[in-house]
Design a protein that fits this description.
By secondary structure, the protein is α+β, with helices and mostly antiparallel strands. Helices cover 42% and strands 27% of the residues. It has one domain: Alpha-Beta Plaits (2-Layer Sandwich), CATH 3.30.70.100. A hairpin with a 2-residue loop joins strand 2 and strand 3. It is globular and about 40 Å long.
Length: 142
């Protein structure tokens, strides 16, 4: 059964767009090798990443990601086996939505800053399935 892990973190201040792009390109290559799929959201300086794969591969990757100086304040708030991968076709999809969009995806009312949105998602893990569905819809949109 695939394993899914979701965490949030804050980008290190001053992280340049070019560094982010390079990190994403390297990640996609490595993820293909290790059979990792998922999505990375970059929202107003915060990351929200969904990683899927074999349990040991996901946990091994998460250890490396936690040590990465390009971000800090890593908070893992979901780790679970799932029936199937949601992001099977993406070695690492990337979206840079507004906090309001993420709130809409998670069907949260009234949260407008990314801090508030993440706090709501973290304390309401029941919002995660609908958020995943809405992220997939956004990725599928032309
Ligand atoms: C927000 C963020 C997301 C990342 N996502 C991935 C990823 O999906 N796959 C990956 O191989 N590395 C990812 N990385 C990079 C890893 O932290 C790490 O640099 C990379 O796996 C190489 O491992 P190493 O530094 O131990 O050699 C990410 C880094 C950051 C800051």
């Amino acid at each position: 059964m695939p394993f899914r892990l979701i965490y949030s973190s804050e980008a290190t201040p001053g992280l340049a767009a070019a560094e982010l792009e390079e990190m994403l390109a390297e990640s996609r290559i490595r993820n293909q090798v290790y059979g990792i799929t998922g999505v990375l959201l970059f929202v107003e300086g915060a990351f929200l990443q969904i990683l899927e794969g074999e349990r040991d591969d996901v946990l091994g990757l998460m250890e490396r990601i936690e040590r990465d100086p390009r971000h800090r304040g890593v908070k893992v708030f979901y780790e679970q086996e799932v029936d199937e991968r949601a992001f099977a076709s993406w070695s690492m999809a990337y979206l840079s939505p507004s906090a309001e969009e993420v709130a809409k995806w998670a069907e949260l009312e009234g949260a407008t800053t990314i801090g508030a949105v993440l706090a709501s998602i973290e304390s309401n893990p029941g919002r995660l399935p609908v958020m995943v569905v809405n992220i997939l819809k956004t990725l599928a949109a032309p």
